[in-house]
């Protein structure tokens, strides 16, 4: 199934997205982690596109999307995502978010409840005061000091290597390519997540919701139970062996989990 890529002219400038599937089918919006791009869902799009109109956007300022010179924030990124829905003529959408994308999905559902039919939160952190305090005390996640001999490229690779499956250098290459594309803004997504006050927004969510837990993701797996506590109607589904790059590590399991949930709502 072919993936079609295009740009939409939005308030921040041109925003890039990729789509797959019948334009008349119910739409699913996929939001990526930081500092990735739509490419995180390259293998997922055709699988979901078999039954839905699957759309993966580059968050404003990432991939090939402009940031409009507006300060990065979860709230801003959710607004731009809603603008994309307007531009594509989509009245209501199921939203799937992974890591940072899951946090954006929470805000999208809270700020624009009539536009979101359901949520799938994959490896999504719960951000409250204790989360913000812990993040403030930790070193940058992906930031590396530039070097004239290029050793910073290896350093960027090595920062993520322990959280990626062995024998899959292709996944690390995809991460490095996206990280290099955003350059000095590589930490913007992590900072935006760290400053987001989810505890003030999560109570607004009334949509059906699925929490996907990648069992080998040390950053996100512990948050699933906490999210479930604040979203008591949500279900948790484990994807065994899943790590930080879950959508492009295990696209078939990821797509199956999403589609099974969406079809249970019909």
Structural class: alpha/beta
Q: What is the name of the CATH class?
A: Alpha Beta
**Residues in helices, as a percent range:** 25-40%
Strand order of the largest sheet: 1-2-4-3-5-6-7-8
Give the overall pLDDT as a whole number: 95
Compute the separation of the termini in Å: 24 Å
Order of helices and strands: EEEHEHEHEHHHHEHEHH
* Second CATH tier, the architecture: 3-Layer(aba) Sandwich
Name some characteristics of this structure.
single chain; 266 residues; alpha/beta; Rossmann fold; eight-stranded mixed β-sheet; globular
What would you note in describing this structure?
- The protein has 266 residues and is α/β, with parallel strands linked by helices.
- It is built from ten helices and eight strands.
- The protein has one domain (4-136, 188-264): Alpha/Beta hydrolase fold, catalytic domain (Rossmann fold, 3-Layer(aba) Sandwich), CATH 3.40.50.
- The protein is 37% helix and 18% strand.
- Helix 2 (74-87) packs across helix 3.
- The longest helix has 14 residues, at 74-87.
- It is globular.
